[in-house]
Design a protein that fits this description.
It is built from eleven helices and 34 strands. By secondary structure, it is an alpha/beta fold. Strand 15 and strand 16 form a beta hairpin.
Length: 633
């Protein structure tokens, strides 16, 4: 993912309020939208006007009140005055000096008796003599009441204001002053939903896959071309935003076997030691995990942010080096299959060594740092086939990845599984949960994680089974039935389309899984081609998901909802993956900055200095974010 830094946005604490005719510290009545005045499009004389020509040659009384919030990008304070152009004079009804930065909502009010002496008279917000292009002004609860000489009254609202084209618009009040995801006016996702779910998560990258290490510190030397660039969670600025909006993270890559083993050419480059497994098999294993320091670095980031982590992932067909399954950790091939595949007993021993070693690294770090970092693990990931049938035993079984027509005798890159090539059944899945149960703390949740988890039908047009929901149910029940395992969670990845499976189709699978175990929505995003599609999808799904949160009457509940990425631009559902189309899968946008700023990064790098690349200065909540906030019950 991208390397980001966050620049100071110029949002300061609001200034002390000094009004002539002003009521300070007012509790503003909530409203859905407010009026925005764009100072960059204003003329040099006024921001907005209301014509008072109908009162020509009358003495009138003006009663005025509005709530104002101002973003002042100028380093100097700006004095805003609501005035009347009578034809011969410019009396001020109310005024306010706005300092640099973002103000609070304040009520401005005033009354004045004036003599109107021209058919061109008007009430206006004065722009003359100030740096009006640096101002964005918001109005709420606007009221201008004119009492004529005959005692009749007329009330003007914000909709009666006139201005140059583009100056006036209506915006959601919640978004006012909320262009930066760290702004006080932007609500926290976690704080908003903590009454519904135990954990709100965000997936992110740390980077540094190939940086050389000294202890648990990185040096500035890249050891593998194409990897090793610092990213997202590596930067303290991004950590602040993640910590605001989530209490859990999931790493996109860093804890996968590929990056913890770091056998970049597919085979081991380690020295070996002996390991005796629970099955009595003694084997040679690598003396260490080459990516061990990456574990420590990411856990350090968790502690710094004050969040916890869903560990992702211990057992997977993909991003696991072929050497892990081969004799002498060096694969040879027959077509797409490994020709020197190891026997079951050896593979089971290697599997146990790997899970034990990873979990011990975590346990040692947690003990040394007195911090509980990892609260759940995806023990097995994506072991069910997309074209799963309902034959679960024997030589004709067709439910596991590697057993079906679409996955049999295929390499992992083509949908196959080395695990199935070794075992020919689900034994490795049961083993994984046995080992995780043995070596993980009892309070760490053990999960099975999969995608397309809501597919459960026969495709008659293609004459293909797609009974993946049933396959996940079956493996969950098998794991639960084993006396040496522990099974806590079915994790629904939830890479969902905007039209399929639809909320009802998804909810049907969800309820089936909740009958077995707790559920994590572990990798939520939407293949949305427009922002409107994303808004509808996030609103509808979060509305539905809350039915099964903390207040659900069933034994099992949704305990976690994790969004699969921070910003649209860095999502795996990006324009290049979508045929060049812009996509809207996530809740924040990357805000680019024309100035390139670089600074040295020393966090978690020891004495070495690494570059920080500035490709943007912050993230902003997009309309899908506000749809999620507004969906909260």
């Amino acid at each position: 993912m991208n390397k980001l830094s966050r620049l100071f946005r110029g949002i300061l604490l609001s200034a002390a309020i000094i009004f002539s005719a002003c009521t300070p510290n007012v509790t503003v009545k909530p409203s859905a939208t407010v009026t925005k005045i764009d100072g960059s499009k204003t003329n040099e004389w006024n921001f907005v006007t209301i014509n008072l020509g109908e009162y020509n040659e009358q003495r009138i009384t003006i009663d005025f009140s509005t709530d104002m919030l101002v973003e002042n990008a100028n380093e100097n304070s700006q004095n805003l005055m609501w005035q009347v152009s009578t034809g011969s004079d410019y009396p001020t009804i109310a005024s306010k000096e706005f300092e640099n930065g973002l103000s609070d909502w304040e009520t401005v009010s005033g009354s004045e008796e004036v003599a109107i002496e021209s058919a061109d008279a008007y009430f206006y917000l004065n722009a003359n003599g100030i740096d009006y292009t640096d101002l964005t002004i918001y109005l709420d609860n606007f009221s201008l009441v004119i009492t004529a000489e005959d005692g009749s009254t007329k009330t003007y609202k914000a909709s009666d204001l006139n201005a140059n084209d583009g100056v006036l618009s209506q915006v959601d009040k919640k978004k006012v002053g909320a262009s930066d995801w760290l702004a006080d006016k932007v609500p926290s996702l976690y704080e908003t939903y903590k009454d519904q779910f135990d954990y709100i998560g965000i997936a992110a990258e740390y980077g540094n896959f190939g940086l050389a290490c000294s202890g648990d510190k990185y040096t500035g030397t890249y050891t593998h071309s194409g990897w090793g660039t610092p990213s997202e969670l590596y930067y303290e600025e991004i950590q602040k935003g993640v910590a605001k909006h989530a209490n859990s993270i999931t790493l996109g890559n860093e804890l996968k076997p590929q990056f913890l083993l770091q056998w970049w050419d597919g085979k081991s480059n380690n020295t070996y030691v002996e390991f005796t497994a629970s099955n009595g098999k003694t084997i040679k294993v690598p003396s260490k995990l080459n990516g061990e320091s990456l574990i420590y670095a990411t856990l350090n980031a968790c502690k710094k942010m004050g969040v916890q982590m869903r560990g992702h992932v211990l057992t997977w067909h993909s991003q696991t080096p072929d050497g892990f399954f081969a004799e002498n950790y060096t694969p040879t091939y027959n077509g797409e299959l490994i020709s020197n595949i190891v026997d079951k007993e050896t593979m089971t021993a290697r599997h146990e060594w790997y899970i034990k070693t990873v979990l011990k690294c975590v346990a040692d770090w947690e003990a040394a740092n007195n911090y509980k970092a990892i609260w759940a693990w995806d023990v097995v990931n994506e072991a069910m086939a997309d074209d799963a049938g309902k034959t679960y035993t024997g030589t004709s079984q067709d439910w596991l990845r590697g057993s079906t027509a679409g996955t049999k005798d295929k390499s992992p890159n083509n949908g196959g599984s080395r695990w199935y090539q070794v075992y020919g059944n689900e034994e490795f899945i049961i083993n994984a949960f046995r080992f995780a149960n043995k070596y993980a703390p009892a309070d760490v949740k053990l999960c099975y994680n999969d995608y397309n988890e809501y597919m459960d039908y026969h495709d008659s047009e293609k004459n293909k089974d797609c009974y993946k929901t049933s396959a996940i149910e079956h493996i969950a029940n098998l794991i639960k039935a084993d006396s040496d395992t522990r099974f806590d969670v079915i994790a629904m990845q939830s890479h969902v389309g905007t039209s399929w499976p639809g909320v009802n189709g998804y909810e049907t699978a969800l309820k089936r899984f909740l009958a077995i175990a707790d559920v994590h929505v572990s990798e939520l995003d939407f293949s949305a081609e427009t922002q409107a599609e994303a808004i509808t999808a996030y609103k509808d799904y979060f509305t539905m998901l809350q039915k099964y949160g903390k207040n659900y009457s069933g034994t099992h509940k949704i305990r976690n909802v994790t969004i699969w990425g921070i910003n649209n631009e860095s999502s795996w559902i990006n324009p290049s993956a979508a045929g060049g189309k812009k996509t809207y899968p996530l809740l924040f946008n990357l805000v680019n900055n024309v100035d390139v700023n670089k600074k040295d990064v020393t966090y978690n790098t020891g004495a070495a200095v690494l570059p920080q690349y500035d490709i943007g200065d912050t993230y902003e909540p997009n309309d899908a974010f506000w749809a999620v906030i507004n969906a909260h019950k």
